[in-house]
Specification:
The chain contains eleven helices and 17 strands. It is an alpha+beta fold and 435 residues long.
């Protein structure tokens, strides 16, 4: 390459780089306490419940998935809870389906009713990428569909000296994964499953205590129910473990000193924000172009416009430009550890007779639940609503565990609902947008 060619090449690279956000390389390393199989973690939680959150440091629900990008690598994508968000609309288009009430139920051959996907055979390349990340033989592969997690500021009793030294809370993580070439570096899957959050509320309600006023222990399991919660009053149930670690579960409220420690604001910290349109464009732009060609949509053009507007905002205030997100890590290979819960596909069974549903939901209706917002053919997934507690079943009539990661809280009232429902049974909020 001549010196003149080098100048031209440098100029071209400069222009190309100008089209990308200029990320910072000094991204904060976040302190996590990670949950481990059969190892109870004694922690103190901070903040008001999601249902009454007023501060950025209060627990918060996020949706995220691990998606194969245009280069074949996994990317962590954090989703908006607004179903009109662009990536939700791309997902809904590729995963579009009709309901065949006469089709054999794939989970229970004695029943009828199943989803019939419209594009699995006509556009298999697109369908398999979205549904299985191109890994249809992996029963634990969730594809694009995001899971719901709850973020918390916590005190780790086993590492309390760290908190005293750093005057800071930690964050909780479902799992910590060592970096391949340096096991001293751990990468986090932040938060706990939304179902586990519900179990914590249930446990502390039964024990008549606020989580700021007493410790809890979370024990991660390798089988259902996947997580076990212990209040401080139940410390005797894990006494052998506590004694082996020299730990005690405190039933005293947070001290003034502890309340003065640094916390993490989930509303503003870049590690927990919805993925930018620019990140989506850079990593999934080629795939979205293919979706547009197949379905005569205009998602890519819309994405370009949204990214351009985003960059204009960043240029106005460089401090608002997102930093490189290195707070978590997506391993190239699946860890040996047993997966927590396979994602189940829930084909809808034949509609239950309306009269039956009327009786089942009469008390909920009197209590103000917007049960009539739920489509009649979807009500079959609701087993009962008693004392503000809703129980769901799958297409085979099997009760769905409360901590199933596919039970995603409503963005308005936080009532959990499975992916089969298109609206919230409590407040009536719409979950899906018709194409």
């Amino acid at each position: 390459m001549s010196r003149a060619d080098a100048m031209r090449a440098a100029n071209q690279k400069r222009k190309a780089d100008a089209e990308k956000p200029s990320y910072s390389n000094d991204y904060e390393t976040l302190p996590y306490v990670g949950l481990e199989i059969d190892e109870p973690k004694v922690i103190r939680l901070l903040g008001d419940p999601i249902e009454f959150r007023t501060k950025g440091s209060d627990p918060k629900t996020i949706l995220q998935s691990k998606i194969v990008d245009d280069k074949g690598k996994l990317q962590t994508i954090r989703w908006s809870q607004d179903k009109k968000w662009l990536l939700w609309r791309v997902y809904d288009k590729v995963m579009e389906y009709s309901w065949d009430k006469e089709a054999p139920n794939p989970k229970d051959r004695t029943k009828k009713g199943a989803k019939v996907f419209k594009h699995d055979l006509t556009h298999p390349e697109l369908f398999q990428r979205v549904k299985w990340n191109d890994k249809p033989d992996n029963p634990y592969e969730k594809g694009w569909y995001p899971t719901s997690s709850v973020l918390f500021n916590v005190i780790d009793r086993e590492d309390y000296q760290w908190h005293l030294d750093n005057k800071s809370f930690k964050l909780i993580a479902k799992k910590l994964t060592p970096k391949k070439d340096d096991e001293s570096v751990l990468f986090a899957e932040p938060g706990i499953p939304s179902g586990t959050y519900n179990n914590i509320l249930e446990c502390l309600s039964e024990n008549n205590v606020h989580w700021e006023d007493a410790d809890i222990a979370i024990k991660k399991l390798d089988e259902l129910p996947w997580y076990k919660i212990y209040a401080a009053k139940e410390a005797y149930k894990i006494e052998e473990f506590l004694n082996s670690r020299g730990l005690k579960m405190s039933d005293k409220p947070l001290t003034e000193e502890e309340l003065s420690w640094k916390t993490y604001d989930f509303d503003t910290h870049p590690a927990f924000q919805v993925s930018s349109y620019t990140k989506i464009l850079n990593n999934l732009g080629d795939f979205i172009k293919k979706v547009d060609v197949a379905f005569k949509t205009h998602f890519y053009e819309e994405l370009q416009d949204l990214s351009a507007k985003e960059k204009e905002e960043w240029a106005k205030n460089r401090e608002n430009e997102p930093e490189e997100d290195t707070s978590d890590y997506v391993p190239e290979e699946k860890p040996v550890e047993k997966a927590e819960a396979p994602k189940r596909e829930r084909p809808r069974p034949a509609p239950a007779p309306k009269a039956e549903n009327e009786d089942k939901f009469s008390e909920a209706r009197k209590a103000g639940w917007k049960i009539d917002s739920v489509k009649e053919e979807e009500k079959i997934f609701i087993k009962s609503i008693v004392d503000e507690k809703i129980v769901y079943v799958d297409e085979a009539g099997i009760e769905i565990p409360e901590d199933d990661e596919d039970l995603i809280p409503c963005y308005e009232c936080q009532t959990p609902a499975p992916m089969a429902l298109s609206s919230c049974p409590k407040c009536g909020a719409l979950f899906a947008t018709e194409e």
